Amino acid sequence: MLAAYACDPARSRGRRFAQPPAPTRTEYQRDRDRIVHSSAFRRLVYKTQVFLNHEGDLFRTRLTHSLEVAQLGRSIARSLALNEDLVEAIALAHDLGHTPFGHAGQDALNECMAAFGGFEHNLQSLRVVDRLEERYPQFDGLNLSFETREGILKHCSRAHAQQLERGEPGGVGQRFLAQTQPSLEAQLCNLADEIAYNAHDIDDGVRSGLITLAQLEEVALFEDYRREVVAEYPQLQTQTQDRRLLYETIRRMLSAQVYDVIEATRAALQGAAPHSADEVRQHPPLLQFGSDMRAKSQQLKQFLLHQLYRHPRVLETTGRAKQMVRFLFDVYLAQPQEMQARFLGRSDAARGAPDPQRAAARVVADYIAGMTDRFAGREHERLSKLKLVLRHRNIET
Ligand code: MG
Question: How many A from CA of 12 to the centre of ligand 1?
Answer without folding.
Answer: 25
